[in-house]
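Annotators were shown the component list below and the corresponding predicted structure, then asked to write short factual statements about the assembly.
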Amino acid sequence: MAPMKKKPLALSRVYRVIETGPVVLVTTSRKGRPNVMPMSWHTMIDFDPPILGCVVSDRNYSFQTLRTTRECVINIPTVELASKVVKCGNSSGKTVDKFTAFGLTPRPAARVTAPIVDECYVNLECEVVDTRMVASYGFFILQVVKAWIDSSKKGPRTIHHAGKGSFMVAGETIKLPSRKA
Amino acid sequence: MAPMKKKPLALSRVYRVIETGPVVLVTTSRKGRPNVMPMSWHTMIDFDPPILGCVVSDRNYSFQTLRTTRECVINIPTVELASKVVKCGNSSGKTVDKFTAFGLTPRPAARVTAPIVDECYVNLECEVVDTRMVASYGFFILQVVKAWIDSSKKGPRTIHHAGKGSFMVAGETIKLPSRKA
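Structure shown to annotators:
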């Protein structure tokens, strides 16, 4: 495998790639077998260290792995990967090796066992730090412990699910004089 | 005030306007005095009844009102309102009547005391249903009890904060054959 071309992304900047609300691919790994699922229901919770919250239904194969291993990677795809993202959502890791089936490349992460999806422009290596809301809502709280970015990707065309396979693709960026983070 | 032109949005469809991750304006009201603040840190939690989670920092003037009144409206602006959204974020309801100062129109809601922002294309009237994570993270869990939409707005150009006053504006919509909600 060729060396990774991505660079570390400062943890204090993670919120800037998450708070726009992109579809992400969540990778997990159990007994040496990686899995990947798309997810839209996530939010930033805190800036630095970066804390995220996300909903993973117990109907998903990834649920048990995430709860047991307490690790995952949040990978952010761009529009070129949209059809692969949907294929990952239409199948279950219970019966399909999605990496092989859909041509995604698992790459070893630095801090967690779950793999990075090489094709995604951002990868956030995460540890589960709070499971108090898992029973009620499937809501996991994650801390990002290492982050990577392909910094050649300017104005990344992320995809944002609007239900039933409808995706809004990121458009132009505007800049306004905000005093906020 | 002219009658509202918006129509009810079925509660089962609320997730479709939230899961793309738009900046929203949160309105609250205390002692007859409404306030409005922008927010990007929110996620869907469940489909129907629609449950949302959002982070409101205790540094924000809206925090105490939300905690005390247990009500708010989540309003979704489009790009025409971007400069007003930023002005709302650059000021505090403690010292400024933001509706008057920035030319936003508060309209009575149907089910809660907090007002609707008339200029926003979607308004979600919400009740706080779970405060267990407020002490740890400022994370409120809301149930949408009534929803409104300006259905003339096709492909709404929502804005998605990327930090420091940088906003991604919603681009084109693509449709892929997903078997998921």
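Statements collected:
1. Residues 61-69 of chain B form the longest helix (9 residues).
2. The two ends of chain B are 38 Å apart (CA to CA).
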